[in-house]
Design goal:
The chain is an alpha/beta fold. The chain has a single domain, classed as TIM Barrel (Alpha-Beta Barrel), CATH 3.20.20.70. It contains twelve helices and eight strands. The chain has an eight-stranded parallel barrel with strand order 1-2-3-4-5-6-7-8, surrounded by seven helices. Helix 5 runs parallel beside helix 6, helix 8 crosses helix 9 and helix 9 packs parallel to helix 10. It is globular, with a radius of gyration of 18 Å. It binds cytidine-5'-monophosphate. Cytidine-5'-monophosphate binds next to loops.
């Protein structure tokens, strides 16, 4: 399906997660949707298929969001960041809660890894707080006395102060984080649903247009595309709506 010119450029703002359990299932999805330029590889696929899936994406000229949510001591974070940098991934996630020293270490090592293999350095972006942690768990389990919103803002600020390129956030937090962290801080938002799609387990959603208006740079949109009766038509509809 061909997209109108404006809609065509908007496809580059959509990242589709490869939420599948094997390399063969991932390749089938990638090849079924050639118009998708940016794919997310998360823990399930990376643990099951290893880095081979990154080579498959690279060989097809795709952009890669490696969503490994790294959280470890600075030395280990740096080692993983260096290895990710060598693959030439464009986005890499780490938990801001790993602390400023680890965040600086992983960012620096990712740049070194990219230099070693002649790739562009990844944008290391922070998970501020998992959306599965609500106010109750934050207070009673993690013993954090801040509100969820205030904690997420603190973590975004820590990420920015540590030289990270951006954060993953709910579209509902995008406007606030954009203001707090500036125009160059990349905001990547899951929890996006067009009005015609099922919300599934996503609770607080925004439509793609609303999320872009709120300041999101990239939208992670999975099931509204991958589970649609006609995924290519779903992408075309999404992009046309975003262009409007
Ligand atoms: O299918 P859906 O559009 O809900 O997929 C969203 C993707 O973004 C999934 O890969 C999910 O793991 C990821 N994600 C999320 N919420 C977060 C962080 C990541 O939905 N807070």
């Amino acid at each position: 399906m061909t997209l109108a010119p404006t809609a065509e450029s908007l496809i580059n703002r959509i990242i589709v997660p490869l939420d599948v359990p094997s390399e063969s299932a991932a390749i089938a999805l990638i090849d079924a949707l050639p118009q998708v330029t940016f794919w997310k590889v998360g823990l399930e696929l990376f643990v099951s298929s290893g880095p081979a899936i990154l080579s498959q994406l690279k060989s097809r000229g795709k952009r890669i969001f490696l969503d490994l949510k790294l959280h470890d001591i600075p030395n280990t974070m740096a080692g993983a960041g260096r290895a990710a940098g060598r693959y030439g991934v464009e986005l890499l996630t780490v938990h801001a809660a790993a602390g400023g020293i680890a965040l600086r270490a992983v960012q620096q090592a990712a740049i070194e890894g990219a230099q070693q293999s002649g790739e562009s350095p990844p944008n290391v972006i922070a998970i501020t707080l998992l959306t599965s942690i609500g106010p109750e768990a934050l207070t009673t389990e993690l013993k954090v006395s801040l509100s969820v919103e205030a904690y997420a803002e603190q973590m975004a600020q820590l990420a920015k102060d540590s030289g990270l390129a951006g954060a993953v956030c709910s579209p509902h937090e995008a406007a606030k984080l954009r203001k707090l962290c500036g125009k160059d801080f990349r905001l990547v938002c899951p929890g996006v649903r067009p009005s015609w799609a099922q919300k599934g387990d996503q609770q607080r959603t925004m439509t793609p247009s609303e999320a872009l208006q709120a300041g999101a740079d990239y939208l992670v949109i999975g099931r509204p595309i991958t589970q649609a009766a006609d995924p290519a038509a779903a992408i075309a509809r999404l992009c046309t709506e975003m262009a409007a």
